[in-house]
Design a protein that fits this description.
It is a single chain. The chain has helices spanning 14-24, 28-50, 81-94, 132-142, 160-170, 173-176, 185-192; strands spanning 52-57, 72-78, 99-104, 117-123, 143-153, 197-205, 211-218. The chain is an alpha/beta fold. The longest helix is centred in the first third of the chain and has 23 residues, at 28-50. It is globular, with a radius of gyration of 16 Å. 40% of the residues are buried.
């Protein structure tokens, strides 16, 4: 397990995130579509193989929504209403029939009953919430036993020039709306204290191993 310090929950607030993504919403797709597409495709491919009811946590502008098959029923939540408006427009224009709802909601306080979903997926979300462990707790709670949690996220470098750049960017996390520094220890420590969760897969993705897909079984 990494010895890096887990980032404090106080370094990024809900207000920081909401303000940042209100700014990002008009240009988010232009800036992030290509670089994040491999991670979204990998997550969607796994979910399509599982089927069932899916909670898309931090659905944002809905870039992955067209990737889900007809055997999947999707509920998307996001803190940012401007991002959700883009997602709703995408659903209307693309005629995506398997999206059941797109709702403004705090991912650290998910307003669905225990075991409501077969799968919960969080694409590029762990670095954007004030308390990532609380997010994982909530995702685990709303996934039924036997279901799956799927995460796609950047895992920070532990040393070298990339780590130095991430530390520099980390001082600007509130403006960016996410933490460039994000150690594996955040997920590893959460798994270590949960007897009802087991790591199934941790795999680096293109481009350049910048992002990682993490699959967790809900026991």
């Amino acid at each position: 397990m990494s010895e890096r310090t887990v980032p404090p929950v106080s370094d990024l607030s809900h207000t920081d995130v909401a303000d940042a993504y209100a700014r990002w919403a008009p240009v988010y797709d232009l800036v992030f579509t290509l670089v994040m597409r491999p991670g979204r495709k990998a997550a969607a491919a796994r979910i399509n193989g599982l089927g069932g009811r899916v909670l898309d946590v931090g659905v944002g502008t809905g870039l992955e929504l067209p990737m889900f098959g007809p055997n999947v029923k999707i509920t998307g939540i996001d803190l940012s209403e401007p991002m959700l408006e883009v997602a709703r427009k995408r659903v209307r224009e693309r005629g995506i029939a398997n999206v059941e709802a797109l709702v403004a909601m705090d991912a650290m306080n998910i307003a669905f009953p225990d075991g409501s979903f077969d799968v919960a997926v969080a694409p590029y979300v762990l670095t954007t919430v004030p308390d990532p462990a609380r997010l994982l707790d909530e995702m685990s709670r709303v996934v039924r036993p036997g279901g799956e949690i799927i995460l796609v996220n950047h895992i920070g470098a532990e040393r070298g020039p990339v780590a130095a750049i991430e530390r520099w960017l980390g001082k600007r996390a509130a403006k960016l709306g996410w933490r460039p520094e994000f150690p594996w220890a955040v997920v590893g420590e959460w798994l270590a204290r949960r007897s009802d969760a087991r790591l199934l897969e941790r795999r680096s993705l293109a481009p350049f191993g910048l992002f990682t897909i993490i699959r967790i079984a809900r026991l």
